[in-house]
Amino acid sequence: MPSTSTKVSSVQTGSFRTECDYHADSxxxxxxxxxxxxxxxTINVHPFTDSLGSLQKVPIVDAAVAYxxxxxxxxxxxxxxxxxxxDAMDNNLIPxxxxxxxxxxxxxxxxxxxxxxxxxxxxxxxPQDNLRIHMSLRGIISYFPTRKP
Length: 149
Fold this sequence. Notes:
The protein is mostly beta strands. It has one domain (about 20-145): Cathepsin D, subunit A, domain 1. It has helices spanning about 10-15, 95-100, and strands at about 15-20, 30, 35-45, 55-70, 75-85, 90-95, 105, 125, 130-135, 135-140, 140-145. It has a 4-stranded mixed sheet. A 4-stranded mixed sheet has the order 2-5-4-3, with no helix packed on it. A 3-stranded antiparallel sheet has the order 7-8-9. The radius of gyration is 17 Å and the shape is globular. The chain starts with 9 loop residues before the first helix and ends with a strand. The model is unreliable at about 1-10 (pLDDT under 50).
């Protein structure tokens, strides 16, 4: 009898990606976040080429995502400030530059490109919380799994 497989989507598992976006100047959050604050401010967003059009009146929010650490079993609530909220997106985009400005140690080199891979490669370190988030690759995009708290 031929085997059948069932594809499990991220909607079924509740896990989405927060991706590193090295070209962005602002975080962009999708619909699977918990908005914790908004001041009613919006912005018009223009992509890298005019032919794509623009997004009008995109809300600027502070929001939370949950990260479930596979090593400790703990869930961490990560707050992202002054982010663009695009409800049509499933995943989130975070600029590593801004994470570094906030004191997060960003090691963006994938382990496959490290001559001597260690736990200090391809990870985010939040020193004040002693939290290390190991990133994965989807194609060439570095990410870690998050969900709505």
